[in-house]
Description:
By secondary structure, the protein is of the alpha/beta class. The chain is 35% helix and 31% strand. The chain contains 7 helices and 15 strands. The strands form 4 sheets. It has a 5-stranded parallel sheet, with helices on both faces. A 5-stranded antiparallel sheet has the order 10-9-8-12-11. A hairpin with a 2-residue loop joins strand 6 and strand 7 (138-143). The longest helix has 18 residues, at 10-27.
Amino acid sequence: MNIAICDDEKIFRKCLRELLVKDNFAGGADIRVEEFESGEALLNACEKGTARYDILFLDIRMPGLDGLETARALRQKGEKCLIVFLSSLAEYARKGYEVRAFRYLLKEEAERELGKVMEACRKELGEERWFSFAQGHETYRISLEDILYFESKKRLILLHTETESYSFYQKLDEVEGELEGGRFLRCHRSYLVQERYVRSWKGNSLWLTDGTELPISRGYEKEVNRRLMLRKGG
């Protein structure tokens, strides 16, 4: 597992590296950790093709390119690593969804909370990432990573990715049951959306990273806000 720490504070980088090595003994996974003191240094390494990471611990407040700008540039380049922002959830939660942040970790809570964050990361990276369905006489397997949202039109389900849409017959409640585990969020009786692709939300609407606007019905509004605002730690 390749991990990067991008933070302008050398002392904290060293501390987090030591915590990751300690957690590695408990988690049982081989890890490789690299450190970067700025967003520019991280982007340069990625552009040279020398850096491919599974998990990125990224400080939001840095001189020069801040963490959000760095994350946005990485996503534009097609990087799909799990991003753990090192900052305040309350302050940056909504903006973090623009770059599909996976978790937030307060620096002062790193020693206590890192184990939970790494456990969630290992689970995310190790899960079987496919959704299967029958369409006519053929069976399709779509990577969960590519699914933006499901749309229900009576018993017809439309599965939307960034490039294609598929249709099959099933109840959305059944699809939601198959995907139980926190990755997908019900925002309306007719829509089931992948949390990581939610860019922003307000009132009775949410917007995905591709610009799609979906409704939030009153019955799901409280849970939508709870899930999107509190996606922190385990």
